[in-house]
Description:
Elements: E1 12-13, E2 19-22, E3 52-58, H1 64-73, E4 90-93, E5 98-102, H2 119-122, E6 127-134, H3 139-156, E7 162-167, H4 174-194, E8 202-206, H5 213-222, H6 229-242, E9 245-252, E10 257-261, H7 268-285, E11 302-306, E12 311-317, E13 322-329, H8 336-353
Parallel strand pairs: 3-5, 3-6, 6-7, 7-8
Antiparallel strand pairs: 1-2, 2-4, 4-5, 9-10, 9-13, 11-12, 12-13
Helix pairs in contact: 6-8
Amino acid sequence: MISSGNGRGGARRNSTGLSYAHDGLVDTGLSTEAGSAADITQSKGEEALAERRILFMGMPRSGKTSILDVIFDGTQPYDTLGMLPTVQRIMYPMVTGISVYDFPGVDDYAETQYSTFSASVYGGEYTSLVYVIDSQGDIQTSLSTMYSIIRTAQSVNVDIPINIFINKVDGLSEELKQDIQQDIQNRVMKTMTYESLNSTYVQFFLTTIFDETIREALSRVVRRLVPRYTTLETILNSFCSKSSLDKVFLFDISTKVYLATDSSPTDPLLYMFSCHTLEIIEDMGSMCTAYAGSEDEAGLQKTVVGMAGNTKIFVYQVNSYLTLLCLGSLPIARQDSLLEFNGSKIAQAIRKILR
Ligand SMILES: Nc1nc2c(ncn2[C@@H]2O[C@H](COP(=O)(O)OP(=O)(O)OP(=O)(O)O)[C@@H](O)[C@H]2O)c(=O)[nH]1
Ligand SMILES: [Mg+2]
């Protein structure tokens, strides 16, 4: 049975001007009545899912809507406590044409219309599944539901990436988190092998809405869907080596999800630090307010932050919704003019690639 009750109605708009809405009702500005549980599949006249899409699924109260509200809407984690069950899928548009869909929770797969979802939901080269598990809940039942979803999904799209968010890990010790992840990973791999399901594209993430783990996990999901990701990665690698930088992120400003980074390993702590730095810069200078929609270089913000020790952070705005954040060490990063010149060239290239 799908949980009933009032869902979230109407369209919402974030700072980038993108709106989040129930499908088929994008940006009407009108509030809507929540639909019945049966509305979760596409009905006649309902808008088709976007070509580049991320599907958030999982059991009721696993935390799907909370994760997306915190990332896309800037909702404070504690404000998600009284969150109502989702009764109709909700779309969250992202930059570069990617849409994230929040589906109602499923606790009895056979009785819901999830079992009838097919290529229109799971199909396509640019579709990715995120399955959210409540690490403090009934993991076994959640995994059984997940296998049912994977069976249906792989029957129409055998290569669909499966991203398992082991959520609500706040309050757990580091050791316990690792144990839970290892246990879930072993169980999933064993069952998938036994059932001859494709486990090549399965990834596991430990997440909580109380820190940046949700943003980092979504960044890793998104990168497979970003148009021309390999080209972006190549130019960011070249930017790093030519400018002697340690790390470069291409951030979506409003969500702090990174769309691309250079190919060096990403330290989660470095990513968290970068997110917080961006927030501080935004708070201090309202980074994008000066940007009036043109791609005139003069309107783009450039910020250099010198840190204690040798690290310097260079933030270079690409357009109204993307920014480069680069980290490097003195003395080479001291050459601000070289960085600025290279940053400008890279920003130009990114604008062309993601046009
Ligand atoms: N401690 C903790 N609680 C969380 C976390 N994420 C979500 N929650 C809580 O879990 C409850 C359910 O969250 P929802 O976001 O409504 O869950 P959902 O998966 O969207 O539920 P349905 O819409 O019914 O499918 C809320 O009270 C949230 O505050 C988390 O990371 N940690
Ligand atoms: Mg929900």
